[in-house]
Amino acid sequence: xxxxxxxxxxxxxxxxxxxxxxxxxxxxxxxxxxxxxxxxxxxxxxxxxxxxxxxxxxxxxxxxxxxxxxxxxxxxxxxxxxxxxxxxxxxxxxxxxxxxxxxxxxxxxxxxxxxxxxxxxxxxxxxxxxxxxxxxxxxxxxxxxxxxxxxxxxxxxxxxxxxxxxxxxxxxxxxxxxxxxxxxxxxxxxxxxxxxxxxxxxxxxxxxxxxxxxxxxxxxxxxxxxxxxxxxxxxxxxxxxxxxxxxxxxxxxxxxxxxxxxxxxxxxxxxxxxxxxxxxxxxxxxxxxxxxxxxxxxxxxxxxxxxxxxxxxxxxxxxxxxxxxxxxxxxxxxxxxxxxxxxxxxxxxxxxxxxxxxxxxxxxxxxxxxxxxxxxxxxxxxxxxxxxxxxxxxxxxxxxxxxxxxxxxxxxxxxxxxxx
Length: 420
Ligand code: NAP
Ligand code: HSE
Known about the structure:
Blueprint: E1 2-7, H1 11-22, H2 24-31, E2 35-41, E3 54-56, H3 60-63, E4 70-73, H4 79-90, E5 94-97, H5 100-114, E6 119-120, H6 131-138, E7 144-150, H7 153-165, H8 169-178, H9 187-190, H10 193-207, E8 217-218, H11 226-234, E9 237-248, E10 251-262, E11 274-281, E12 285-292, H12 296-313, E13 332-333, E14 340-350, H13 355-365, E15 370-377, E16 382-389, E17 392-393, H14 394-405, E18 415-419
Parallel strand pairs: 1-2, 1-4, 2-3, 4-5, 5-6, 8-10, 10-13, 10-18
Antiparallel strand pairs: 7-9, 7-11, 9-10, 11-12, 14-16, 14-17, 14-18, 15-16
Helix pairs in contact: 1-12, 2-12, 4-5, 5-10, 7-8
């Protein structure tokens, strides 16, 4: 019998305990051994969990329990779980986590500490979709050319409701929290950080890139307005928060931001809490992974799959997929300022003579070419200019945005969405 200890019995932890019990027949048959949850750790002992396992508020009760074979970390955070999982590995236990924030900062140290001990993290990216297994094992024969997709269920749920039903941003964020989709601090979702954590994990497996969130371009959906959504609809786009990793010769660009994406693209059609990730390999071509990106049961499905896998074999393939660095073809992170894209801009300007001429002159001086422009009056004295550009360089765009913000006829900080 394999015994499991769950550190963090919240949305996902509760589902893990329930699935291991409710699906015990198929799980034990697949694992070849019975798997039971011995105990769980929480912060607040007074909260009712509805589970028939021992619940404590002391991690030592699991870490020092010699009967526990697998520690499942589902408490969230970065440094506290780092200490917990290090202790678990050093105590000879296998570890399963869904914690992408932990991995975004400490995955290489954990790989070093884990060595041939099992350390699995399927649920850390795209909830219930087995994208880690697909990338690390199923596509291991390929050089990965790109990874692009919807990696945050909360943002996709919010953007879908804002687009299709015109629901207000704050209302829909609250609903995402109630549904168990959002992180404990939802600014991680709407600010793009959660998707960035996931992208960094995928980039390590695809490219062996050891980057931290601070090294890459991260923007969220906080500034997307109904004006932007209306522009997108008018020009045949959907707005999605995407994580993008792209190989360009010996560099890899990594970025997370809201994107305008043509409505006919498959990723544009992925709505609600669903995630969808396209991975292009040099030999396989494009592969697409789709499924629920957040929520207790969907995420726990991936956690339990890792537990079963460990129960079957006892050890892991190399945690991040590489047994040694690639000789002679190490990839490096592309500087954010060199990234190229098409852009959409929303600029609120005073509605008076000469404004357009001055504005377009500034575009010209920054070498940015306008593709389309639409003017929408916002009140008697001002108008929103909704502009899309041809391909431009990020550094030129950032410089131009700063210059636009300082102009006397620009009424508010201009906002920008990249076009994929
Ligand atoms: P959650 O509902 O907030 O649950 C966290 C659990 O950890 C709670 O039971 C909490 O105790 C416990 N906890 C927190 N700090 C603790 C501490 N210092 N000592 C002991 N227990 C502590 O979070 P969740 O949504 O289940 O997410 C858990 C992890 O899975 C996070 O890393 C998250 O990023 C990841 N994840 C979540 C989803 C999702 O859809 N929710 C999807 C993929 C990955 P109390 O119950 O007493 O507060
Ligand atoms: N908060 C995350 C999301 C949970 O909404 O995608 C799944 O990782």
